[in-house]
Amino acid sequence: MAKGFGVKKFDKWILFPIAVPVGILFCFSLTHNFIPVFWWEKVSFYIAIVLGFLISITVFRYQFKVWLPRNKIKKYSFKWCLNIFLVFFAAPLMGTLASFHALSVGIGKVENALFGEPETYKIYNSTVNEVSNSRAWCHLYLEPIEFNDRYSSYKFCIEDMELSSLVNSVNVKIKERVSSLGRKAIDWELINFKTREDEINGYVLFRFDIETDGTPTNIKVIYEHPKGIFTKEALRAIKKWKFKVKVVDGKPVKQYGMKYKLDFVLDE
């Protein structure tokens, strides 16, 4: 290493007492089961700006005092311009965001685990949210309406549950531990499903065969109204049914091309 290259005491002071704990707390905060109180979220934001600035200084000093001279990067080259972007845009932004999440959620979860009150139950009305991004952590999740405008909120993944497409909101009963810095969800369950108010009634018409044991097979949808609303639920229901078996000469026989209309009438 050339003379003068290396991490100075100032950089080590930022790197180890600040950047490392922030990184650990940030990893600890990567969940959706904690909501910080508003005042702590606000304090965390201002502290995060300071920490992001200090981390950015370290990145700046390393890039321009160590990495660029060591690798003899020419001024205005692609790598030089990339470092300018990293130092003056990416580092401050990512450092501030990571610090904010580490403080508001990470420290909040630690304080909650140490000083939180005994678990209590609370019911939240929650919306059903769908995400089409293939890289999303969950494609179908619940979020309490009460915390929709907060940066950190409860989010409960339900993509493995057989939830009706008619449901657009659910009451979630959450077991929480509450402390001075926030509340943490320990456990939860779904109650009181609510359906879309503008799609109350409808029906699905099927054609299918009935096996000798009464189970339906080769199920086809002939017609549905409204289109695409009740089909999933109707198919799920009819596959579980048992129909009356036709008996000829004392033996059950298979029936072909049977039709059945399944009506849906939901109370407003």
Task: Estimate percent helicity.
Answer: 25-40%
Q: How many H/I helical runs?
A: 4
- Indicate the overall shape: elongated
Main beta-sheet annotation: 6 strands, antiparallel
- Taken as a percent bin, the fraction of beta residues is 25-35%
Transmembrane segments: 12-31, 43-60, 80-103
Pfam families: TonB_C (PF03544)
Main location: membrane
Domain TonB C-terminal: 176-268
Description:
The chain is of the alpha+beta class. The protein has three domains: 9-115, no CATH class; 120-195, no CATH class; 201-265, TolA/TonB C-terminal domain, CATH 3.30.2420. 37% of the residues lie in helices and 32% in strands. The strands form three sheets. A six-stranded antiparallel beta sheet has the order 1-6-5-2-3-4. The protein has a three-stranded antiparallel beta sheet with strand order 8-7-11, covered by helices on one side. α1 crosses α2 (38-71) and α1 (9-28) packs across α3. Keywords: Membrane, Transmembrane, Transmembrane helix. One of its GO terms (cellular component) is membrane. The chain crosses the membrane at residues 12-31, 43-60, 80-103.
